[in-house]
Design goal:
The chain is built from four helices and seven strands, in the order E-H-H-E-E-E-H-E-H-E-E. It is an alpha+beta fold and about 160 residues long. The protein has a seven-stranded mixed β-sheet, sandwiched between helices.
Length: about 160
């Protein structure tokens, strides 16, 4: 439903518990949940290396993006992930969130956005969203996370329109 969801906004300390519930609702008991919780905590406490954006509906966080400048690089930012509640149709809402991340990163001088994610069905919706919004696979590192689970390195040049 266009217009039903408010625009993405910066993560606030009061979003900590609802966002944490979203992280657990999306990632559950996977090997990726602990890192997502760490990043959420960093963004919530105002760590300059980790930013968070949320979209909420009825006081419930339904979408969360975690991102920030990539350490040791110039003009490169890292998208840690975009999590969308399982009951939410992801296509339009995901595009809105990716656009907000891109706008924030570009506003801070970024020219490249990189995402490093597991090739795992647990993050399949996220990978599909990134591919649909202009991210292209740059590399695949076999057995990176564990046997049979590669790391995918995706990138999106900023200043380009998404596909």
């Amino acid at each position: 439903m266009p217009g039903y969801f408010p625009v993405p906004r910066p993560l606030r300390p009061t979003d900590s518990e609802p966002a944490r519930a979203l992280v657990w609702g999306v990632l559950g008991v996977t090997p990726y949940v602990d890192r997502a919780v760490e990043l959420l905590a960093a963004a919530t406490r105002g760590d300059p290396e980790t930013r968070g954006l949320v979209i909420e509906r009825d006081a419930t966080v339904v979408t969360l993006a975690l991102f920030g400048p990539q350490a040791g690089t110039r003009d490169t930012w890292r998208l840690y992930g975009v999590l969308i509640a399982p009951h939410i149709e992801s296509q339009d809402l995901g595009r809105v969130m990716i656009d907000a991340v891109v706008q924030d990163a570009e506003g801070s001088g970024a020219r490249l956005l990189v995402a490093e994610l597991p090739a795992d069905h647990a993050v399949g919706r996220m990978l599909s969203l990134l591919r649909a919004t202009g991210f292209r696979q740059e590399a695949r590192i076999a057995h990176f996370y564990r046997d049979g689970v590669a790391q995918l390195v995706l990138r999106r040049e900023l200043g380009e329109s998404a596909g």
